[in-house]
Design goal:
This protein has helices at about 20-25, 35-40, 45-55, 60-70, 75-85, 85-100, 110-150, 160-210, 215-225, 225-250; strands at about 255, 260. The protein is mainly α. The protein has 10 helices and 2 strands. The longest helix has about 55 residues, at about 160-210. Strands 1-2 form a two-stranded antiparallel sheet. Among the domains are: about 1-55; about 215-255. About 70% of the residues lie in helices and about 0% in strands. Helix 6 packs antiparallel against helix 7 (about 110-150).
Length: about 270
């Protein structure tokens, strides 16, 4: 949990206090060295040096290393090697370890598949952008040939050659339009997949957190969260009204299947004088 600490305008010097060290240890992953330095009123270099000497590699970096190593042990790694080039595999590993570390050690298999598919879409999008760039270079090259041919004397110009080059440009431009459409489609699919991954994960985490809610933390949440407090109040009022309505219903006479008429809910308050 991040600890708040008052900002100080003057840069302090000397050894870090016990409070400073505690603040750095608890916030070195959540905050940047610049932000920590600002909170403590220290120089950025002193904070960086302390973290490097005393904290070392962060738990997030450890998760990235573990994810990088674990990826190659996955059953689908061989398929990835046959599907992508070496540079694409490097990009895949980069995104995989970053996303995996972001989710810490709490990734379900369905979420893992979503991560893999999302990265695949990213690589396919990169392929399209590369093809578009190659197409643009081809168009520029063919246009240069057309210009060079048209600069010759008219009687020396090869009209068939020029027409052939112009058809090539038309083909390249048509390919550009197709690539642009494919890119937008993949972009939409990737956005949807990321949204689904975020949504399903948030729902699952919320369910886990709710299941861990103790009485003390519930009281604290009610006191600190106005929206939650209002919802709890509404739910309690609905339950109170429903209880009253059901009590009134069960206090009335009803006829059972055997013909006996009686009150299901009989107390000194509901008993009828007749």
């Amino acid at each position: 949990m991040m600890i708040d600490k008052k900002d100080t305008s003057a840069k302090k010097k000397g050894r870090f206090s016990v409070e400073d060290i505690e603040f750095i240890e608890q916030n070195c992953e959540a905050l940047s060295p610049e932000e920590i330095a600002d909170q403590l009123g220290r120089s950025v270099s002193s904070v960086k040096n302390w973290i490097e000497k005393n904290v070392g590699i962060s738990s997030r970096q450890k998760r990235e290393i573990e994810a990088h190593q674990e990826l190659k042990s996955k059953p689908y790694w061989r398929e990835l090697e046959s599907q992508f080039s070496e540079s694409e595999l490097e990009l895949f590993q980069f995104h995989f370890k970053k996303m995996w570390a972001q989710f810490k050690d709490d990734v379900f298999h369905t979420e893992e598949i979503q991560i893999v598919d999302t990265i695949k879409l990213e690589i396919l999008m990169n392929r399209i952008l590369t093809s578009q760039q190659e197409n643009l270079q081809n168009i520029e090259g063919v246009q240069a040939l057309i210009i060079a041919e048209k600069q010759r004397d008219k009687e020396d110009q090869d009209r068939d050659y020029i027409s052939s080059l112009e058809r090539q440009i038309a083909m390249f431009k048509a390919a550009q339009e197709t690539l642009s459409k494919d890119y937008k489609d993949l972009q939409a699919r990737k956005a949807t997949m990321l949204k689904d991954l975020k949504g399903t994960r948030e729902q699952r985490i919320k369910a886990i957190e709710d299941s861990k809610l103790t009485f003390a933390s519930l009281v604290k949440k009610i006191a600190s969260d106005p929206t939650f407090r209002t919802q709890i109040g509404l739910d309690m009022e609905k339950m109170r009204l429903a209880t009253i309505a059901e009590k009134e219903r069960l206090s009335e006479y009803i006829q059972y299947e055997d013909g006996i008429v009686d009150q299901p809910f009989l107390t000194n308050e509901t008993v009828k004088g007749d």
